[in-house]
Amino acid sequence: MKSLTPFYDPSISYEDNYANGPFGLFTQLSHVEHVATQTSQFLNLDVNLPFGMPAGPLLNANYIKAAFAYGFDLCVYKTVRTRFHKCHPLPNVLSVHPNGKLSSHLDIVLADTNYTQPLSITNSFGVPSLAPDVWQPDMADAVKAAGQGQYVIGSFQGTQGHGEIEKDYALAAKLVRETNAPILEANLSCPNEGASKLLCFDVDKVERIVNEIKNAVPDRPLILKLAYFPDDEKIISLLTKVGSIIDGLSAINTLSAKPVNANGQPALGENRKEGGICGDAIRWAGLDMVSRLDKYRKQMDLKFAIIGVGGVSTSEHYHQFIKSGADAVMSATGAMWNPLLAIEIKKSLN
Ligand SMILES: Cc1cc2nc3c(=O)[nH]c(=O)nc-3n(C[C@H](O)[C@H](O)[C@H](O)COP(=O)(O)O)c2cc1C
Asked: What is the best residue among 254, 309, 330 to mutate for testing ligand 1's pocket, by most ligand atoms within 8 Å of CB?
């Protein structure tokens, strides 16, 4: 497994990464190897390879342009909000060292700055956003940078305390639509915005949010970003309510854990005892969620697309997700540390 200079530098602030990144190979955009592929259908669009990066690592148009140049054909622009929202202070990313697979029960994991393979990390940003007058022109610029068979997906979320959250989701969707992003993604998997901690578990609220978004933006495919669902009943209940309205489901976001330093103290700071874990240790959960979504999609005769996310860092992982029922696959942690991942997957198909 390759470990190259990550294009996002965890040792400096989010703001500095935003202003000065991306780094490493993503600064070299000429003479990038182009590997031709047979196109696939994704949400009724022709895509070169249904592979890319989920919401997070691609902070702005400069990152998206680099990702397109390196053959990531589906690029999600990091989640935006209807107004400015500050980022958590450093550290935002640390390496974590679980013993094998991470469970979904808030494991305690050692966290430090030794980014060793197979890599798992904790990320803790608090879903920052610039104001729409800054991110809208930038997202529009990213949308224009797409080559043939490449697409920007605009990720957004509503914020608690800005009136009804359903309306704030709909406003965010409208603002994303104004950038001409061809696909929208509503992030429902970040902590603290819903009744049962993660919004996606509050199925009635999800239904109201989806209806508001679809009323506000009827002419764009809508993907929902989900967390790992431990029990099947919740999946069935979600699909019963929104399975025929939405166009895609992206799963999974991170699994929560308690990262600690070598002294057993909270590694992200006293007021951030929990962090989301992504990378190698959560791949089992991503694969499990995708195969259960696929099973119920068939049983309930639904048509939505499934985007498989979680711990993808090799071409084998890509193929595992496709075999489990994913229509598209995305990698955050794996791609951040290996910008050549899309090229490697394309070569594995030839
Ligand atoms: C640096 C970083 C930032 C992230 N920010 C977001 C975000 O803004 N919105 C979102 O829906 N998910 C976010 N995520 C979660 C990823 O989209 C993805 O679901 C998760 O990292 C699992 O994929 P992985 O194992 O390939 O990293 C972020 C992940 C990382 C690594």
From this structure: 254
Residue with tokens 């939405």: 246
Class of the 14-349 domain? alpha beta
Contact residues of ligand 1, CB 6 A cut-off: 54-57, 78-79, 93, 123, 125, 127, 155, 187, 225, 253-254, 278-279, 282, 309-312, 331-334
By 3-state DSSP, what share of the chain in percent is helix, strand and coil, each rounded to 5?
A: 35, 20, 45
Q: pLDDT truncated to tens, each residue of the chain (350 aa)?
A: 555 799 999 999 999 999 999 999 999 999 999 999 999 999 999 999 999 999 999 999 999 999 999 999 999 999 999 999 999 999 999 999 998 899 999 999 999 999 999 999 999 999 999 999 999 999 999 999 999 999 999 999 999 888 899 999 999 999 999 999 999 999 999 765 544 579 999 999 999 999 999 999 999 999 999 999 999 999 999 999 999 999 999 999 999 999 999 999 999 999 999 999 999 999 999 999 999 999 999 999 999 999 999 999 999 999 999 999 999 999 999 999 999 999 999 999 98
Residue recorded with tokens 């854990």: 257
Terminal Cα-to-Cα distance of the chain (whole angstroms): 20
